[in-house]
Amino acid sequence: MLISIASGKGGTGKTLVATSLALALKDNRKVKLLDGDVEEPNDHLFLKPDISGSQPVFIPVPKIDEAKCTRCAKCAEVCAYNAIAVLGGCGACSYLCPEKAISEEQRQTGVVEWGNADGIDFVQGRLTVGEAMAPPVIRQLKKHTDSDGIAIIDSPPGTSCPVVETIEGSDFCLPTPFGLNDLVLAVETVRQLGIACGVVLNRAGVGDNSVEEYCRKENIPILLTIPLDTEIARLYSRGITLVEGLPEWKEKFVGLFQKIKETVDARDRSLKR
Amino acid sequence: MREIVVLSGKGGTGKTSIVGSLAALAKGKVLADCDVDAADLHLLLKPTIKEENEFWSGQLAQIDEAKCTECGLCQDLCRFEAIRDYKVDPIACEGCGFCSHICPTNAITMKENMSGHWFVAETRYGPLVHARLGIAQENSGKLVAQVRQQARRIAEERGFDCIISDGPPGIGCPVISSLSGASLALMVAEPTLSGIHDLERVLGVCRHFGVPATVAINKHNLNEENSRRIEDYCKDQGIGVAARIPFDNAVTEAIVRGLPVVEYADGAVSREIEGLWDSISRP
Lengths: 273, 283
Fold this sequence. Notes:
The complex is a heterodimer.
Chain A: E1 2-6, H1 14-25, E2 31-35, H2 43-47, E3 50-64, H3 74-78, H4 92-96, E4 102-117, E5 120-127, H5 135-141, E6 150-154, H6 161-167, E7 172-175, H7 180-192, E8 196-197, E9 199-204, H8 210-218, E10 222-227, H9 230-237, H10 242-245, H11 249-272
Parallel strand pairs in A: 1-6, 1-7, 2-5, 2-6, 7-8, 9-10
Antiparallel strand pairs in A: 3-4, 4-5
Chain B: E1 2-7, H1 15-25, E2 30-33, H2 41-45, E3 48-63, H3 73-77, E4 83-84, E5 87-88, H4 98-102, E6 108-123, E7 126-133, H5 140-158, E8 162-166, H6 173-179, E9 184-189, H7 193-208, E10 213-218, H8 224-237, E11 240-245, H9 249-256, H10 261-264, H11 268-280
């Protein structure tokens, strides 16, 4: 089962939920945690994994052999990006060059690393500073989602291509909204991809109850509520997960998983029928 | 033209709250919200929208079933796995057009894709340009570039010499697009391990693109030891720390009331942000 954690806005508790959910489940189940926020991966700061392997992420970059090039400009005609940005290399220019003058070189834009964090299988992607395109790193990270246990994937914030790349194919998505505006964005994204979702309300108690009303109206369950609490914020600041800092939270995260599992199992049963 | 972009690496460190307060303090400027995925400056500034424009960017492949012979060449060659069972997955399609060039029966055409909207609005603090990228769309960097270009145009028209931009989280394409060529990057950092880690990476992006940076530590007293680590790191890198904003419930209360904190309370938070604006408003 693949569970994704997402939010329209950043800093709303994705890392907190992903790490605590993984820790709460690891004693009784096989758990894998993947950090898909490859621009700013933070899960490792909390889980402190022993990294045992890594694989660089390359994107193909076209290289023109001047000796063979006849300046026919076919490559310029077919390049949808005017070669201003290489979006992970579509391969059109090298395939269509009549002189076969274009080959592809590999440029490293990031790395995928894996290891073990106190019994949790840990995988993270890391985009190289100065590189623009997160999706190729996320695509390589997601080759590690195979798991006979539970895989949890932490998403980057937002609603555009890196988020879609991360949460696509998950069985359940947990948005962690800060307010109504970013919840609506997350729910629209999740629904466009046809993924079931339920909400973890973080820093509850701020503002009005528009989030609860929206969830009721849209028939989205609120699966867990984490209050606005200075103690929780201080633990977070020191890189301590919620279930380790305040162990009474472990049971609540196990309960959160049970509710997710019920939804996913019910869906699987109805699909079989 | 002085263009200040507010970034943080990590989300939720207080960028928008600080931009809201700078908006209240600065005279003669244009505001820009460069977080086109999840813009929220408009929630704070309550603008009246004057202009709504469509953002057309990129293309999507379209297969004409009548012409398609199901040869499968497009599926084999697409690097983005965007064609399955002779149908295009509009979310996976990157719009590169490779398939349209190689289809032996010319069954594939590229159609223009409307991927969002951008707005010109008026707030009580001056004009605001913001945007909304469609759900699951690409090209957020290009939409950010459009927001910045429009902000510059308005500033020139009205004779303003300053643009204040609220940037997106992360270090990737929309951040690079928000940052390149700006006069100053103001980093809002929170004293958490995640905040420090993410700050270091986004400062790396500033260095890479040659944009000078200065740091404001937000919720300074949440973790004094981490705040000292940020100070030490900045000193080491030759980057100034322009503000040390304490944790104060007044900030949350101001957000709930939809007011910039400098207009809501006159305590230590407001004094720090006023000092911050003093130190960054001039080159």
